[in-house]
Amino acid sequence: MSRRWRGIVLVVIAVTVLLAVVSLASDVGKLGDRLAAFHGWAFGACAALAVGNYVIRWFRWQIYLDQRSIRVPFGSSVLVYLAGFAFAVTPGKVGELVKAYLLRSMHGVSAVETAPVVVAERVTDLVAVLLLAVIGVAFYGVAVKIVIACSAIVLFGLTVLAWPRLAHGILEIATQPRALHRFREPAVRLYDGIAALTRPGSLIIATAIGCVAWMCECMGFWLVLHGFGADVPWGLATLIYAVTTVAGALSFLPGGLGVTEGAMTLLLVERGVDNDTAVAASIVTRLATLWLAVALGVVALALCRRRGGVAAPPPDTAA
């Protein structure tokens, strides 16, 4: 079986398991009733806001490429950026590193130069969504323990990025075994590139852009809730979406599957939304955000292949 089909099978299995869990957690008949009564305009609005999220984050991607002095045609930049979404259901979205390989295949750009851009995107996305969650906690006092735990993890990561001696020491220890020794230099270069893109000034700008982008999806979630007739304040919806997105990302499960939906349902129920509506809202929201992104990514990846951007990987791709 080819790698592509193995990936498709794994995604199908993951979705099947998720739907089975959802079915056990909710009355299927009532869930169907909730979906039947849902106002379709809310799904369209949520999907449109999700696309707005992608557009804003592409703008940040382009800023990062400019900072690394990477010049590629506009069309290629858009396609490669979107193609990364095809791997949004990989653990921690690590599969989005394919963007570095695509730029190398299509335009000969060194993967060592572009990989830091992909990682810096993930870092600033995490910081941006966590910031939205922290602001929400200040107003609503919901999911305080989760936000504190996530903040501690993110702050540790940012400390490592801002402390070269510590980071280099960790990398040296991690690559001490002979089998890993050859990865030390590429790892150090990768770290240096990420650190350069996440210095205070760049981090603030990138995080601000990320906050605006993710606010779009938070608003989409709020509209979906209203599409089901759930009277949830906009600020609370923002908090719930942000904290569950962070929890899913830090779980390192593919796309945060199970964790994000489960936490979203639980927090909605705690705030007075009935269980079936909460489950239905989480499903619809993820369809309009995560799975829409995956679908766009698959199309973009196919277009990249037509441009010659997907071929047999060179021997040093793993490095």
- By DSSP, the count of extended strands is 0
Structural class: mainly alpha
The number of distinct structural domains comes to: 1
State the share of residues found in helices, binned by percent.
Answer: over 70%
What fraction strand? under 5%
Q: Assign an overall shape.
A: globular
Low-confidence stretches: 311-319
Mean of all residue-level pLDDT scores: 86
Count of helical segments?
13
Rounded to the nearest angstrom, the distance between the terminal CA atoms is: 24 Å
What value does the Rg take, in angstroms? 20 Å
Return the string of H and E elements.
HHHHHHHHHHHHH
Biggest sheet features: none
Features:
globular, single chain, 13 helices, disordered C terminus, 319 residues, mainly alpha
